[in-house]
Design a protein that fits this description.
single chain, 427 residues, alpha/beta, eight-stranded parallel beta sheet, globular
Length: 427
Amino acid sequence: MGTEALTRLAEEHVDHRFKGLPPDAYGLTVAELAAQRRNLFRDGDRDGGGFTTPVLALSAERLAHNLALMETYTARHGLAFAPHGKTSMAPQLFHRQIEHGAWGITLAVPHQVRVARAFGIQRIFLANELVDAAALRWIAAELAADPEFRLVAYVDSVRGVELMDAALAGAARPVDVVIELGAGDGARTGVRTEAEAEQVAAAVAAVPTLRLVGVAGYEGEVPKADPERVRSYLRRLVELAVGLDRAGRFGEADEIVVSAGGSAWFDAVADVFAGIPELSGPVLKLLRSGAYVSHDDGHYRRLTPFGRVPEEGALEPAFRLWAQVVSRPAPEQAFANAGKRDAAHDLDLPTAQVVRRNGEERPAAGITVTGLSDQHTWLRTDPEADVEVGDWIGFGLSHPCTSFDKWQLIPVAEADGTVVDYIRTFF
């Protein structure tokens, strides 16, 4: 099912839905356009590309590097890996992640699960509470129709268990659940105490529609996070798993899931999970970092654990947003034709990295992004800045989770600008 669905993506026709693509490609299938290997930077002559600005591109080489690096890292540390698919919502990338050793894909809401299932993803970790009756009935039907499909979801309240049980009444297979442990006062979801966790575990044990298989949490929500606070929370998560196991709460589980791991503290997860003691069944140590696939030039560049453990390697930012200078109204000011509709801006503004003119590329010295309008990037230009109307500027972006969602079809370009593939997103 997954291969056929991916093939259908390649058969989709290029049209007005997709920003930045060559106008003369309209009517071609995505596969036909990819086979032409157009160049991102050359103009639209007979041998050119014809891409229009703004256009977001992924680096083919850096994407491959990041996929391989996390495969090596998780294997080295004995971790199973379910990268968070909400980052890209790109089934082509889901399958590449699985080809690089991922156990499955993490998702956050039922719509995302439906996308993943439409493209044949067989293991899904739903890192969220799920009490929507219609969604639960759909999941029950998926589980009944496909014996190979596995889904694991969060629970954090007795009331949630009751709602799930009511919606799943008569289901052919129980839904696997893990108890989410909150990361402290002021954190997001999750039980706050071990006593609450035991109450939820007892509630799960009392219904036939659910099966308790482990514990999970998100260390990125630890208040005032630092290495010791994060490790303290993760140790508490492990201790919760040990306590529930000793109480016999995982008796029906084939394996015991212990899961954590955003993209900022996976080194701490690896360290603490290495110390998980022997439990009554095999332990699935499940890491969920998702932003690694593209990395970024801001938020995660500052926070990446590879900055703390450089001997493990380094992720590379794979995104670049290309926009064109359309106005130079004053010596100290210029405007490019990309804005909030095109660039992530929830954590940091884009950063000007390079300028292209007449086929030559140079650093964007003296050019600073000061703001974004809906369709314009505000640029401050220092006296030494060499920038003219018509120049292309390549911008680095911060926060991949709000970069992918602005683009439905993203060119994948090699270092010389040759576009070798297109990534389809589903937000």
